[in-house]
Amino acid sequence: MKVITLANQKGGCGKSTAIINLAIEFASKGDRVLLIDTDPQRSSYDTLQIRKDNLVHTIVAYSNLYETLGKFEDQYEYIFIDTPPHADEVMAMAIACSDIVIMPVQDSPLDIMSTKSTVELVRKAKELNPGLLHYFLLSRIQPRTVLAKELVDILERNYKMGILKTPLSNRVAYKYSLIYGNSVSELRNAAQAAQEIKTLAQEIKELVKAGGLPDDSTKYR
Ligand SMILES: Nc1ncnc2c1ncn2[C@@H]1O[C@H](COP(=O)(O)OP(=O)(O)O)[C@@H](O)[C@H]1O
Ligand SMILES: [Mg+2]
């Protein structure tokens, strides 16, 4: 079992959107996937309830995360954890229990600043769990713009943490698909978004399987 957590105390950076799409992508390729929503707003739990096929098993858990993971570890290949917009105990626990923590960040200096306390939690968790992988995910961005390049520079300078090679662009498809509890891959006419999610899922899977890369520096260019 591998645990993949999406965390950033900045609300609205795209955690739930990314995690729903990734969980559906993994499950539709045949992996047994559980999504644990630890955010009392329950965005990902409620969204996944809209679809009736139970493709991604979904539960809520606001405490005792460690015990919950122990209960399910033999049943799933991947457990995704969505987190609340607070760098609190729940988020700290989710990060500490993870194989990989992914921090979505939007292309705004304000968003980069407010990622600081999540980065601190990751640094603390690494003291106890040195194998923890952690990456920024450029989220809702316009790729290959000057702004995106500047964002990467600022992230590198401030936090010295890796950035996933695959960004998620700002696209209407990400909003539209969730109306039906679908991923963008399940929409017609959303080929570019679907490709992004497919590539991102592959990138994450490879990182988790390999336990990181020998040169774990920034990958996005
Ligand atoms: N890649 C994207 N493109 C366009 N809109 C997005 C994207 N990711 C998220 N959104 C929208 O941004 C808002 C916040 O996203 P959400 O996933 O709820 O963030 P969080 O879980 O971090 O609070 C939602 O309205 C969502 O539809
Ligand atoms: Mg959310």
Write the layout of secondary structure elements.
Layout: E1 2-6, H1 15-28, E2 33-37, H2 43-50, E3 57-60, H3 65-72, E4 78-82, H4 89-96, E5 100-105, H5 109-113, H6 116-128, E6 133-141, H7 146-159, E7 168-169, H8 172-178, H9 191-210
Parallel strand pairs: 1-4, 1-5, 2-3, 2-4, 5-6, 6-7
Bound molecules: adenosine-5'-diphosphate (ADP) and magnesium ion (MG).
What is the residue-mean pLDDT, rounded to a whole number?
94
CATH fold type: Rossmann fold
- CATH homologous superfamily name? P-loop containing nucleotide triphosphate hydrolases
Sequence of secondary-structure elements: EHEHEHEHEHHEHEHH
**Which small-molecule species are bound to the chains here?**
adenosine-5'-diphosphate, magnesium ion
Distance between the termini: 31 Å
CATH architecture: 3-Layer(aba) Sandwich
Q: State the helical fraction.
A: 40-55%
What is the spatial order of strands in the main beta sheet?
A: 3-2-4-1-5-6-7
Number of H- or I-type helical stretches: 9
- Determine the structural class based on helices, strands and strand pairing: alpha/beta
Number of domains: 1
Major sheet: size, sense and barrel closure?
A: 7 strands, parallel
Q: Which consecutive residue ranges, at least 5 long each, have pLDDT under 50?
A: none
Overall geometry: globular
